[in-house]
Write a structure and sequence with these properties.
By secondary structure, the protein is an alpha+beta fold. It has a domain of 78 residues: RRM (RNA recognition motif) domain (Alpha-Beta Plaits). It has three helices and six strands. A hairpin with a 6-residue loop joins strand 2 and strand 3.
Length: 117
């Protein structure tokens, strides 16, 4: 009985994943290339190739999510390696910085002209 309960718990445990920053990629790099590169170290859960908001052009960096130990192995093995003539920058992704812009604290509305009523 205890074995069945333990197996039930293990089925519900989410495997910890780590998000990896992949920088200095060629602007011609593809998701398939990145997947092949990281799959050598374990199962790739997701890949996000970051495009410019205005032009839609690839910005030369992305993110890969993998199981924690596979991610650590990939980071160690791939950082400072060469792909398409570019030295890759591979490290654990950091949380995105707050990009509030400061200054305007009234929800985006300007009060330059005084009251309209």
């Amino acid at each position: 009985m205890a074995q069945q309960a333990w197996e039930s718990v293990l089925e519900n445990v989410k495997v910890l994943t780590k998000k990896i920053y992949v920088g200095n990629l060629s602007f011609d790099a593809t998701e398939e290339q990145v997947n092949e590169l990281f799959a050598q170290y374990g199962k790739v859960d997701s890949i996000a190739m970051i495009n410019d908001r205005d032009s839609g052009r690839f910005r030369g960096f992305g993110f890969v999510e993998m199981e924690d130990s596979a991610a650590n192995a990939a980071i160690t093995a791939l950082n400072d390696t060469d792909l398409d003539g570019r030295t890759l920058r591979i490290n654990e992704a950091r949380p995105r910085e707050d990009r509030s812009g400061g200054g305007n604290r009234n929800g985006g509305y300007s009060n330059r002209g005084g009251s309209r009523y």
